[in-house]
Amino acid sequence: MEDMERCIMELVVNGGNVRSMAIEALRAAGDGRFDEAHEKMKEAEETITQAHNMQTSLIQKELNGEKIEGGLLMIHAQDHLMNAMTVMDLAREMIEILQKR
């Protein structure tokens, strides 16, 4: 179970980090620092990919019959991940709009 809890906490932490990186990228773009904004978004993309791979691994384990425990903590981790993906999508679009100005 410790391994499962570690995975879930990594999802929470990575989701929070990705959200923060996307917001930092958007702020940089708002100040006209587009190279920094793109670098932050690249870092966010790498981190969300790691988190998504971990999520996929957990889903595959469950599909293969392994009981995945986690309850509210797992739901919280999924919320963080989905929120991070949404913020990334919005930041990407807003940076593009700002860059066209």
So, the CATH homologous superfamily? Phosphotransferase system, lactose/cellobiose-type IIA subunit
Low-confidence stretches: none
CATH architecture: Up-down Bundle
CATH class: Mainly Alpha
Cα separation of the termini = 51 Å
Mean pLDDT: 92
What is the number of E strands? Answer: 0
Instruction: Estimate nothing, just give the exact number of structural domains.
Output: 1
- In sequence order, what are the helices and strands, one letter per element? HHH
The percentage helix is over 70%
Q: Please state roughly what percent of the residues sit in beta strands, choosing from under 5%, 5-15%, 15-25%, 25-35%, 35-45% or over 45%.
A: under 5%
CATH topology: Methane Monooxygenase Hydroxylase, Chain G, domain 1
Give the CA-based shape: elongated
Largest sheet: none
Task: Count up the helices.
Answer: 3
| Class by SSE composition | mainly alpha
Q: Which radius of gyration do the C-alpha atoms yield?
A: 16 Å
Description:
With 101 residues, the chain is an all-alpha fold. The protein has a single domain (2-100), classed as Phosphotransferase system, lactose/cellobiose-type IIA subunit (Methane Monooxygenase Hydroxylase, Chain G, domain 1, Up-down Bundle). It has 3 helices and no strands. The protein has helices at residues 2-30, 34-63, 71-100. The N and C termini lie far apart (51 Å).
